[in-house]
Amino acid sequence: MYAVFKRELFSFLSSMVAYITIGIFLLVSGLLLWFFPDTSILDYGYAELDGFFSLVPYLFMFLIPAITMRSFAEERREGTYELLITRPIQIWQIIVAKYLASLVLVLFALIPTLIYYYSISKLGFPEGNIDSGSVTGSYIGLFLLGAAFTSIGVFSSALTKNQVIAFVISAALCAFAFLGFDYSSQLAAFQGIENIMSSLGINQHYTSISRGVLDTRDLIYFVTFSVLFLFVTKIIMGGKR
């Protein structure tokens, strides 16, 4: 399992796609946070990162599918898929190894954004006037959100050998998982159970953690969500094996 994880991670790091994808993510998030008038924290006038944490989930809908689209799709396209599944390793170990490698890359994309926290802390008046607890909770929420989206991406990549199709499927599923249940809860057909519908979506749980309060229910939700998609991926991979 570690061999597959290391192979997958080094394959990512030796590819320009990973650097370009992460670079675009950091560039866009930086422009939105500091330069664009409607979202610039300098125009907002408060020492907080709420705007950043509200924007990143939408960037994740494109960043993470771009990272995960090659997980299994490229294996099939290059003809190495048969060699991979005939190794003396169980299917679930292959899936988890690829999942963790993709998640590490997502973490690599998040680490440089800590400079935003440091900068705003220094710019605050008085210096250090920023809610560190809320920021910590928001970063934990982003990591859990990334874990959930990564499980969707790995699942989507297992469905096809075309990376573009895998990207589109993953982006669509991520968008629906984050926003779809909230919009569906507003329909007349779900009147009376709108709270239940909203609780099925990621947005409500991500928002809850972003307040700086770690609720066990939110943690269980994200873990269950990720495990569910990885389990379905195992079923798909087992059938194709």
Automatic annotation (TrEMBL):
Subcellular location, record wording: Cell membrane
Transmembrane segments: 12-35, 55-73, 94-118, 138-157, 164-181, 219-237
Molecular function terms from GO: ABC-type transporter activity
InterPro entries xref list: ABC-2_transporter_component, Motility-assoc_ABC_perm_GldF
Predominant localisation class: membrane
Keywords: Cell membrane, Membrane, Transmembrane, Transmembrane helix
One CC-aspect GO term: plasma membrane
Domain of life where this protein originates: Bacteria
Membrane association type: Multi-pass membrane protein
NCBIfam families, sorted: ABC_perm_GldF
Name by which UniProt lists this protein: Gliding motility-associated ABC transporter permease subunit GldF
Lineage, top ranks: Bacteria, Pseudomonadati, Bacteroidota, Sphingobacteriia, Sphingobacteriales
